[in-house]
UniProtKB/TrEMBL annotation:
Tagged with keyword Transmembrane helix: yes
Record protein name field: DUF6804 family protein
TM helices/strands, residue ranges: 50-68, 74-92
Organism name: Chryseobacterium endophyticum
Keyword Transmembrane: yes
Keywords, alphabetical: Membrane, Transmembrane, Transmembrane helix
Pfam families (alphabetical): DUF6804 (PF20619)
Lineage, highest ranks first: Bacteria, Pseudomonadati, Bacteroidota, Flavobacteriia, Flavobacteriales
Amino acid sequence: MKPFLTFCALCCFIGIFKLPIEYYTFLRILVSAGALLVLYHTITSRQPYFSIVFLAILILFNPVFPIYLYRKGIWIPIDTITGILFLLINFIEKRCLKKKRKLPKKHRNMHYRYTRELFPETESLTLKN
């Protein structure tokens, strides 16, 4: 997910320059897919603020019913802010993953032992430590 969102941010920053209309169609599809991915992820992890922001990005960049703002001067800050938000979501995810602690080995073994005792049919599915 992180490389894809970084690619979305990079494409948004490239969208600042004067490019053919085909690139902006590609950008709409790409950013919509990225916003949909982030929207799903934020809804499942119950982060409503990012959900609202990326829902607005999804609506603005949707390729099915495109919103045309006609002036490049309006799209430049929108592309810049969208790229920054994609990078921000990557940064926040990296920090959250670093904060998650790994269980000490004795707790992992206890979890494995209790799972094996309660659900013997899943013993072949669990990884041995």
